[in-house]
């Protein structure tokens, strides 16, 4: 009898433990699904569910709702499970790691741009990254893909496509380059290195120097890099590199591989046709057979167009945070550049930092930055003013409009980091068509619209 009671007690305890576990799991499961649904609705209202570049494309017919993609994403809440299927919750935060696709056990995810034929900020490219202007190619950020490893891979692939087309065309004429590369960032540098390995004559034109967009990064910024092979250098196999590390690599390649980089040169236009282009700059013209545009998407800084924006205290990038000790600084913007600038300034002695963003929350930033800035805001080291817009900048104050009315901030310095205006006007002037440009495609010399890359 006692043995029977003992067994009954053991089974009762076991069943109670299992029931408790199931209950806790069910509550947490439902809570996480409800949170994902709420975040999706909130981000949809804010326009944050839409991606800026590449993002996860989920095949709902294959998805089994296992959450491995959600757990694998380094950026946090890009993906969530809603109604038993993976959905994009915060597409604006995706920067194309691709780890969600690797983790999916049923192959229901791939990382891409979606239907770029309907996007007016993505140039139409064929499978060789050639635009709707024959002989004019695009590699890197301008094609809609961020991240260094994407830029390197596109630079190599585009230069090889140029080499194939030139070999099919025959020898070049006198006083004409095989290739001009516009932009000396990762895409442009690797395209030029690949072209040199193929025996092509090549010149790289850049307003700043080797490194491109990396030159704009704050000092000592860490950059996440997926393993990628750099022509003439070898494998970048570390997970993180500092800005200085990457610039040293590009400078070394510039010195040792014989790259012809013309620094301080701004391209103003490109005329001609395949085999006979004229790349025009402020000072001279370069005659070439092919052109690769490896420009960034930021272009010129975006202005707020408010009174006082031309005051000397207003800047559009932060070079040295240490120079702003003891200053009252306003940073305007809600992206990673603005957040990283605010955090850098917040670590300077007696620097009073305010971060103004037009939306109520910082939803576009990388997960790592979200985790780093949260305690700074909580502890008062950064004064975050969400849902605010700058209305005027004066010598010693800045005026903002917020949900509760005007805000007047004592101020010494203003950093406007509201993104940039991409060089789309320059491209359109060359005849390059973008997604949805039906009229432009009809005017493109009878050439059929290029397929998305």
Class of secondary structure makeup: alpha/beta
Count of alpha/pi helices: 10
Which stretches are poorly predicted, pLDDT < 50 over at least 5 residues?
Answer: 45-49, 438-453
Average of the residue pLDDT scores:
82
Q: How many domains make up the coordinates?
A: 3
Number of strands: 25
- The helix content is 25-40%
Mind telling me the CATH class of the largest domain?
Answer: Alpha Beta
CATH superfamily of the largest domain: FAD/NAD(P)-binding domain
Radius of gyration: 26 Å
Please outline what is shown here.
The protein is an alpha/beta fold and 453 residues long.
SSE topology:
Blueprint: H1 2-46, E1 55-58, H2 68-72, E2 79-82, E3 85-88, H3 99-103, E4 109-112, E5 136-138, H4 148-169, E6 177-182, H5 186-197, E7 202-206, E8 222-224, E9 228-230, E10 234-236, E11 240-242, H6 243-256, E12 261-263, E13 267-273, E14 276-281, E15 285-293, E16 300-301, E17 314-315, E18 328-332, H7 336-346, E19 352-356, H8 367-378, E20 382-385, E21 389-393, E22 397-402, E23 405-410, E24 413-416, E25 420-421, H9 424-430, H10 438-442
Parallel strand pairs: 5-15, 6-7, 6-15, 7-12, 17-24, 18-19, 18-24, 19-20
Antiparallel strand pairs: 1-4, 2-3, 8-11, 9-10, 13-14, 14-15, 16-25, 21-22, 22-23
Helix pairs in contact: 4-5, 7-8
Structural summary, described in words:
- The protein has 453 residues and is α/β, with parallel strands linked by helices.
- It has three domains: 2-112, 2-Layer Sandwich (Alpha-Beta Plaits), CATH 3.30.70.20; 118-299 and 426-442, FAD/NAD(P)-binding domain, CATH 3.50.50.60; 302-420, 3-Layer(bba) Sandwich (FAD/NAD(P)-binding domain), CATH 3.50.50.60.
- 30% of the residues lie in helices and 24% in strands.
- The chain has ten helices and 25 strands.
- Strands 5, 6, 7, 12, 13, 14 and 15 form a seven-stranded mixed sheet that branches. Strands 17-24-18-19-20 form a five-stranded parallel sheet. Strands 21-22-23 form a three-stranded antiparallel sheet, with no helix packed on it.
- Helix 4 packs parallel to helix 5.
- Mean pLDDT is 82; it is low at 45-49 and 438-453.
